[in-house]
Amino acid sequence: xxxxxxxxxxxxxxxxxxxxxxxxxxxxxxxxxxxxxxxxxxxxxxxxxxxxxxxxxxxxxxxxxxxxxxxxxxxxxxxxxxxxxxxxxxxxxxxxxxxxxxxxxxxxxxxxxxxxxxxxxxxxxxxxxxxxxxxxxxxxxxxxxxxxxxxxxxxxxxxxxxxxxxx
Length: 167
Known about the structure:
The protein contains nine helices and four strands, in the order ααββααββααααα. The strands form two sheets. Strands 1-4 form a two-stranded antiparallel sheet. Helix 2 runs antiparallel to helix 5 and helix 5 runs antiparallel to helix 6. The protein is elongated and about 55 Å long.
């Protein structure tokens, strides 16, 4: 059992990064069991947390949240002595876990681009950083802007969200 750190934008990128580093695709495909991506996000201060009556629609769109979903559920920190008027106190992680399956192994073996690996991982049940972040926003832990600042967004999803927001 080996745990290691690898700097990539997301979990699926770890496969292409290892291959780019010179590891043979068949070794990557056969030896990896799972890859976890994680980012730290700031936590809204519990002392001054309050509902955000008008969250920025741009950030909502980036994390795949509709204004209707956000209504009354998105929080912000007002700022207080406890958080040195930042509205945030502490950090928590958002995660994505890509579990290898036969489709992802085949894609890795055949040097598929990261976008294909990502699509296969999501189809196989991976919750992306942005999706996990959205859950953290809906639980009142952090803000849409915080998630958008640390999670790489899927360009197809951004295009669909922007098109929906401007329609």
